[in-house]
Design brief:
Elements: H1 7-37, H2 39-42, H3 46-71, H4 76-109
Length: 110
């Protein structure tokens, strides 16, 4: 949590989170595409598909939060207070993708 959030600090934090979630989105999309190759054998990867949809929704919400900060549509402190939770979700999603990648690589070696 930012002690003294300013518009500029909040905008930088939102930009950083957008970058993280765009990377997560790319990884989730790659997982979905990879699982689609083998869907007839394994079925769809519902976790990756859900993660992709949620990530896209979060990216949309971050864009909205950035606009709210830029144009003063919502108090800066309120936006700043939400950002740590969003960062935590980014870490959790990255961890899930790491586990999916590890499981896929382990399956390829077997």
């Amino acid at each position: 949590m930012m002690l003294f959030p300013t518009k500029e600090k909040v905008e930088r934090e939102i930009d950083a989170l957008l970058t993280r979630f765009e990377r997560i989105e790319a990884r989730a999309q790659a997982n979905v595409e990879e699982s689609n190759k083998f869907a007839s054998l394994l079925g769809p990867n519902e976790i990756a598909e859900t993660l992709l949809r949620n990530t896209q929704s979060i990216i949309h919400n971050l864009h909205e939060a950035g606009a709210q900060a830029r144009f003063g549509l919502r108090p800066i402190r309120s936006i700043a207070n939400d950002l740590p939770a969003v960062a935590k979700v980014a870490s959790q999603y990255a961890g899930l993708l790491d586990n999916m990648d590890f499981a896929r690589k382990a399956g390829e070696r077997a």
